[in-house]
Amino acid sequence: MSAIALDEVPGCPPRVRAAFTTRTGGESSGHHASLNLGSTCGDDPAHVRANRLALADAVGFDGDRAATLTQVHGATVVAVGPLGGGGTFVGSLDGHAAADGMVTSAPGVALLVQGADCVPIVGWSADASTVMGVHAGWRGLMAGVVEAGAAALGTPGGIAIGACIGPCCYPVDGDLREAMAIRFGNRAVCGQSVDLRWAARAALVAAGIPSPRIVDVGGCTSCDADRYFSHRRDAGVTGRQAGLIWIEEER
Ligand SMILES: [Zn+2]
To answer: Partner of 4 for a Cys bridge, out of 25, 44, 133, 150, CB 3.0 to 4.6 A?
Structure first.
């Protein structure tokens, strides 16, 4: 088995750890090969659990206190307390809060947002006391999940946008292109496609986060089949990578 490969997040303050996973380094096979972290995409639950535990071990957070969501393409952002809450990483694969963003100020609680084309976003507050994770596809972007996440974070320190489907691979119908252009500006549309990463950046800037504080970390999930799962490319039969962020506990 290959080692877990991550897209690193540059510029995190001391005590804040963040990264985006790739598909490399897990136990799942077939369409889910190999580091699938999603529990609702048809993979063997034992493999998902093993992958999540291996990730926790590899990057150094407590799998029992990591929070995931039942992502529903809405704009709800939930606050996660010191015990994780919303369902834990290891003990329960289902029954998590139905939402698309999380914030926490609890050291040791890792936030994990999943995707397979949608935009994963992580961020930290200026004083590094709060961290945020958001999952934003076109529905979530239009619903305002990015702005909700930015508001919940408070005064921003930095934001990282992980790999998502690029405009190279994301043609959509004309109505959606028009709606995205109205909402996020003409740069959110490229020919027959929309640019989710640009739309997410525009939403963050509109929410008061200076553009220089926003870093793009990853590439196109659809173009890079060796590195990423892609819902569009794989016709819905695929795994999930994740954005993760947490505040380290004092030692
Ligand atoms: Zn592409």
So the answer is: 25
